[in-house]
Amino acid sequence: MKKLFILFATIITITSCAQKNAGDFKAPAPEKTTPVKNEAIATFAEGCFWHTEIVFQSLQGVRDAVSGYAGGSDKAPTYEKVVSGTTGHAESVQVYYDPSIITYETLVAAFFASHDPTQINRQGPDVGTQYRSVAFYRNAVEKAVIEKEIARINASGKYKIKVVTQVVPYPKFYPGENYHQEYISLHPENSYVRNVNIPDYLDFRKEFKGPFKN
Questions:
Q1: Residues 45, 48, 66, 83: which is the catalytic one?
Q2: pTM here?
Q3: What CATH number labels 2-207?
Q4: Which of 21, 40, 93, 96 has its CA 20 to 30 A from that of 65?
């Protein structure tokens, strides 16, 4: 769907604040530091992994977020295969963080605040199982944290329908191709980045309380 969006955006002129201000936008980048001894890992899927990557890299305590694929059966996933919707994988992000600075609870809250968890097999213009909402847990404690946040959101009345995020055990994660890493930072002129990723991220910054790096 990203390919179709970009093609469509080149045919018509899209007037939006994000497009006008894209040149001023600086995407959050990974920290060029050595991992701490107690570094933990979390994995989430919430639509386009370009967006998910900068969401988590914007948070204090997160060293890096790597775009890739998880949740499918193919043992050698590539972007071309995953985007076809035939591998079972979702565009995912592996988050490396310092639990002494940011908690897993905060990461989960950021995850739900940065996308619409009531959409089935889609996020915005991206449609397909590869764009589904998934929170992967590594133990019973993480599972309980995710389920508690889902219950809170459902009870809050924020959405008219219930959260459909999949809560599943962590599978193997496959890092995406190099050209997908830090994509927004490297390609701010991209039509999809200007008109979808950046506005979505700015909406997240308005809704979520942080802690942000800047």
A1: 48
A2: 0.89
A3: 3.30.1060.10
A4: 21
Does the annotation mark 17 as catalytic?
no
pLDDT by residue for the chain (214 residues), tens only, comes to 455 444 333 333 332 333 334 558 899 999 989 999 999 999 999 999 999 999 999 999 999 999 999 999 999 999 999 999 999 999 999 999 999 999 999 999 999 999 999 999 999 999 999 999 999 999 999 999 999 999 999 999 999 999 999 999 999 999 999 999 999 999 999 999 999 999 999 999 999 999 999 8
CB 93 within 8 A of CB 50: no
